[in-house]
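hiii, so i know i said id send this last week but things got crazy w the move. better late than never?? heres the sequnce for the chain we talked about at the cafe, plus the structure i predicted for it. fair warning i was half asleep when i ran it
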Amino acid sequence: MIRFYFHPTPNPAKIALFLEEAGVPYETVAVDTSKGEQHAPAFRAINPNGKVPAIVDTDGPGGRQARVFDSTAILIYLAEKTAKFLGTPEDRPELLSWLLFLGTGLGPFSGQAVHFQFAAPEGQEYATNRYRREAERHYQVLNDHLEGRDWIIGDSYTIADMSAWGWLDRASRVRKGAEDPLAAFPNLKRLFEAVDARPAASRAREVGKDHAFKKVNDEETKRALFPSNYPPAA
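okay and structure toks below
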């Protein structure tokens, strides 16, 4: 059984999509990051970095319990465990390259673009422009790669496409004010729509809907989400 630690944000969404696609039995454990539950000692024992997603596989390698954190690591772990959505052995170098491009580039720059456009104090124009333009540059790199391709890797749907879907779903926030945020990247838009049309994507969107996550952006939320902005008192 997979215990899936979840909050309705882009990186956990990737894992929800995989679990639904692969038909892996799992239970969802809500982690309300706006309340700071990701900093609780019990969760830090699973992910020392205090972020979602994370999983605990009660039937890990050798029958032992295993913890896995970071969305890219989880996608690779689950794909290898189930032997699904990995492409062919010949695809492996490309798969790893694009997964890390998404996990260390498109995702983080998208997240920072959202932060500086929606959460940071006013007067951060340099940072706002820097992160938004870098997110858009990553969009363009992937858009160019997808020319003439249906999927990111080889000829089949893989965990790379799932990884891209998680953050492309938030393109309207990454490209704040754009009427059609993926219109300038037609190949990327086509990929997103192909993944989003899959029945598993609809099911993934329902994960966690039975939990009342906090939605108020008050001081508690800011301290929970951005603890490095609030250093401990001397």
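btw DSSP finds ten helices and four strands in the chain. thought thatd interest u
miss u guys!!
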